């Protein structure tokens, strides 16, 4: 694995840690969950053979501290951070953007806000539950998770949230043997879970994308989901939007976390989708 060039970017209310690899057209990778830039370590080198690959720790996570740790988080502010990074690294050329999970929500907002800056967007399982016909049920679930978080703490709330993401009736998954790098990363990012569950999840999963705007830009949008996550909650919005827009849903190896569990196959699929 190559060593990326790293930098710090001052934005409104935070300082972002970012990493850059390779040469070629600009490609911005937006992580989901608490993974940060390191979540793309398994695919970044492969993509850097063809692109200038940039990723970063979103504000409040890992190496991107907030000025005010209690500040409310909004999708639009996170999208502005991503644009500021693009403007720094690629002020002229339109970029390709890949977002996973909560990062995919940011990518969708970017496309609706400044489409002239984006050549193509790959959104892998954005949990925009407001597009679903049963959105009210998921709003109630998110409220229950927050109640549990504030009453009982992180672990009970995280367990309740994870159960809500699974297919109805599915048991909790057995532990998965992760690659060594992924295991070390999982241990490091547990420290960010209170911030993610308490600040990112309720705000991001309440986000309602501009569907008319997205449909008008669907030729630049690739909606993607895990081959193994059919029927799980994060899968459903991508499938719903693909059906609404008539674009088809691109299946990637693995499930919602296929980037971590199947990095080589996930990266190969990304190369194909980005080049199409």
TrEMBL record:
The keyword Hydrolase applies. Residues 25-140 form the AB hydrolase-1 domain. One of its GO terms (molecular function) is hydrolase activity. SUPFAM superfamilies: alpha/beta-Hydrolases. InterPro entries: AB_hydrolase, AB_hydrolase_1, AB_hydrolase_fold. Keywords: Hydrolase. It holds the Pfam family Abhydrolase_1. This is Alpha/beta hydrolase. It comes from Actinomadura keratinilytica.
């Amino acid at each position: 694995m190559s060593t990326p060039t790293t930098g710090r970017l001052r934005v409104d209310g935070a300082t972002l840690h970012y990493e850059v690899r390779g040469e070629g057209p600009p490609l911005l990778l937006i992580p989901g969950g608490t993974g940060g830039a390191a979540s793309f370590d398994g695919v970044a080198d492969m993509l850097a053979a063809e692109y200038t690959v940039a990723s970063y720790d979103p504000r409040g996570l890992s190496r991107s501290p907030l000025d005010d740790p209690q500040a409310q988080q909004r999708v639009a502010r996170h999208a502005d951070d991503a644009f500021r990074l693009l403007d720094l690294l690629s002020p002229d050329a339109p970029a390709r953007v890949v977002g996973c999970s909560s990062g995919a929500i940011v990518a969708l907002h970017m496309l609706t806000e400044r489409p002239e800056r984006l050549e193509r967007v790959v959104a892998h399982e954005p949990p925009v539950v407001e597009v679903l016909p049963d959105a009210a049920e998921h709003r109630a679930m998110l409220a229950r998770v927050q109640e549990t978080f504030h009453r009982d703490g992180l672990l009970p709330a995280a367990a309740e949230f994870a159960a809500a993401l699974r297919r109805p009736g599915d048991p909790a998954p057995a532990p998965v043997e992760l690659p060594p790098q992924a295991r070390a990363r999982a241990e490091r990012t547990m420290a960010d879970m209170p911030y993610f569950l308490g600040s990112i999840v309720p705000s991001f999963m309440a986000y309602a994308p501009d569907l008319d705007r997205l449909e008008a830009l669907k030729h630049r949008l690739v909606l993607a989901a895990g081959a193994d996550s059919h029927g799980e909650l994060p899968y459903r919005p991508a499938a719903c939007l693909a059906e609404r827009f008539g674009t088809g849903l691109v299946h990637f190896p693995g499930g919602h976390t296929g980037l971590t569990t199947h990095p080589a196959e996930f990266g190969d699929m990304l190369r194909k989708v980005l080049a199409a």
